[in-house]
Amino acid sequence: MNAGRIFAMVTGIFFLSAGLMGFLPGFVAPSDIVPEVATRIGADAGYGYLLGIFPINGLHNVVHLLVGIAGIGSAIALDSSRSYARGLAVLYGLLAILGLIPYANTTFGLIPIFGHDVWLHGVTAALATYFGFFASPGLLEISSREPSTDL
Fold first, then answer.
1. Which of 52, 105, 113, 122 has a CB 3.0–4.6 Å from the CB of 96, allowing a cystine?
2. Which residues contact 55 (CB under 8 A, 6 or more apart)?
3. How many domains does the chain have?
4. pTM of the entire structure?
């Protein structure tokens, strides 16, 4: 398994775990402050801090689950793992930038992406950029597949 596929599998497991933990009360510290816009549009369910530091809500957990499932599924092949890493680089790079903008750091009331989420999204985007755009498999990794004997 090459580095790109390992990256997709590891990040997939990481995000799937984060999504699952977000639904378990033992991993979420309740928040005293819920943005008014989140309350108005009904996105305040499950609002709190994962592991006491990362702001989350129910929709945020669902996004983590979907990103995790996509990562694990894309680790099957080299092409899909590179596409996953490229998509993750763009999406999480955008989320890191939005997390720095005061009116956008709750994704317009839907998902909290402020605080410690900003650096986590930035690191994720940087790693995904490397594995999606710069790291390339060697010829031995590509040619190590067994030739097909089916006629």
1. 122
2. 31, 47, 48, 49, 112, 113, 114, 115, 116, 117
3. 1
4. 0.86
